[in-house]
Amino acid sequence: MASLSAQRCQDYEWVVVDGASSDRTVDIARTFNSAPVSLISEPDKGIYDAMNKGVRMARGDYLFFLNSDDALHDLDVLTDVASMLDSHTAIDLIYGNVLYEQRPRRILRTFSHINSRTLPFEDLCHQAVFARRTLFNSVGSFNTKYRLNADYDWLIRVFSSGANCCWIDRAIAMFSVGGAHLLDPKALASERKQVRLQYMSLPKLYAGELARRVRHRFHRHFRPHPLGKVPFDQ
User: Fold this and answer.
1) Does the residue 205 lie in any domain?
2) What is the pLDDT of residues 85-101, one digit of tens each?
3) Distance from C-alpha of 124 to C-alpha of 127, rounded to nearest angstrom
4) Alpha carbon of 210 to those of 122, 185, 213: distances in Å?
5) I want to staple 163 with a disulfide (CB 3.0 to 4.6 A). Which of 38, 67, 92, 188 is the partner?
6) What are the percentages of helix, strand and coil residues in the chain, rounded to 5?
């Protein structure tokens, strides 16, 4: 909330979706007054049900999901992204880099290697993504049958739809490692496999995973760090 209110660009709305929590979430949200706020607090069916509600409530041209305990990277994130979108009006989805904070280490995840061919075998943190709101009309909402991977499933649908997706070499958010998707790594991996098998056969999945391992090993042979992961010590 503090990282959002501190943005130099104030041309945004803030949609707060709370799952009828018993803490002070709603009271704190109501103190936010630097931009129009839409707030709903009611029981939901999980993270992606809440995110779908936020999509339906939103009025902006582009959407960004800033989850609890995460933050925009710096004061000019919205300014820089808005400038890019204003000068490239055909872009449907723009994604940058994310600083993963897992004390005591900090890793800058870069996603320059992500495209429609590689995404089904890689990942893309949704905290890196600004998406045109109308994409939810063309490819559908988050599939709530996936408890941990509905955002990944949605991104695959977007990239494979022919949407204009563009990477920018800019840190977008600080991501606090340790959320719901890491509480059960086995469940995460199993569900992700289910997502992928919607879009390809099992032999193609195995071939793609082999190609991913080769690609990452090749990169590591010539670089001091893994593909898409840069140690961050600033």
Assistant:
1) yes
2) 999 999 999 999 999 98
3) 9
4) 12, 21, 5
5) 92
6) 40, 20, 40
Q: Which of 87, 112, 93, 85 is nearest to 163 (CA)?
A: 93
Interhelix angle for 185-197 vs 150-160, to 10°? 30
CB 76 within 8 A of CB 8: yes
- Does the global pTM surpass 0.90? yes
* Number of neighbouring beta carbons within 10 Å of residue 48: 22
Domain span including residue 194: 60-231
DSSP 20-40: S-SSSHHHHHTT--SS-EEEE
What single DSSP character describes residue 114?
-
Of 136 and 233, the structure prediction assigns the larger pLDDT to 136
Q: How many domains does the chain have?
A: 1
